[in-house]
Prior knowledge:
Blueprint: H1 3-20, H2 31-42, H3 46-53, H4 60-66, H5 75-82, H6 85-97, H7 99-109, H8 113-124, E1 133-134, H9 135-145, H10 150-167, E2 175-176, H11 189-195, H12 211-224, E3 234-236, E4 246-247, E5 255-259, H13 260-263, E6 276-283, E7 288-293, H14 295-300, H15 307-323, H16 328-332, H17 339-344
Antiparallel strand pairs: 1-2, 3-7, 4-5, 5-6, 6-7
Helix pairs in contact: 2-3, 5-15, 6-8, 6-15, 7-12, 8-15, 9-10, 10-11, 11-12
Amino acid sequence: xxxxxxxxxxxxxxxxxxxxxxxxxxxxxxxxxxxxQMVAKHQFNEKALADLFNNVELNEGIIKKISKPSEGLPWxxxxxxxxxxxxxxxxxxxxxxxxxTLAVVEKDTGVPAAIIVAIIGVETxxxxxxxxxxxxxxxxxxxxxxxxxxxxxxxxxxxxxxxCREEHIDPLKPEGSYAGAMGMPQxxxxxxRNYAIDFNKDNYRDxxxxxxxxxxxxxxxxxxxxxxxxxxxxxxxxxxxxxxxQSLPYLKExxxxxxxxxxxxxxxxxxxxxxxxxxxxFEQENGEELWAASDNFYVITRYNKSPLYALAVYQLxxxxxxxxxxxxxxxxHNHTTNPGTQQLFE
Length: 346
């Protein structure tokens, strides 16, 4: 990051923090307008919402954290966060303990168990780190005291209040990340409302304590975002160039859209029927690695838009798969890895 960029980030954070101050979120002038919107649009009780926001705290530490995301790291540093042995072993254990649900969900949705296990591992290390911020504090702080993304977080706060009403949850109780992501899969409120699944039919979509609901919810998210069964995720280019690559201005600068034949890379596995791939450069300590990403890689970035995140998920899949042995359930029910999963490992 250059000096100018660092100074810009510092000045932005300083300006935001200078105008927030301490106190309840009701001290921010825009809260009253939001309350009136919720009353008019969703028939909430105005006094009840006003009382609720009197108990919501503005957290300046959240603004500091969101200004320094780990996705700003180069790849060779970022991957070290997630490709550690304790996380890998926890993934092997989680897969073994929940093999039946994973197998059933994979069969029903076409979303590989490996992807589901890796997502939970990257997000919360299998429920070990789900966040300790009150969700309503996090969302409200970012909605009303963080102008760069206030529109997004106002929308998520709206979804959060709606889901609390729908699921009969006290809005002051749920805890999550500094960005308001919740539970083992770290769903934002809009994702919870749209994709969470009540797998065991107990009339509660529990993404905090129920691994079965979590597994089914992640699979549903990927299925609804266009996961293609039988297709690979990403393959490393051993030798090739960016010749004939077409720049895509709406993606990160290191992404290129190419046809499989335009650079004729020597890659470790074929892209099957995928006709187009994105070439992504990942920064190493000395130089860079080039990878060809399929549409399924893009689907992972719908969970988190960072290509670094998506590659970390993929490499965690490989690490866990290299250590696990099929469970007794899989052996007894003759459940074998589906073609989409197998391609992930090649």
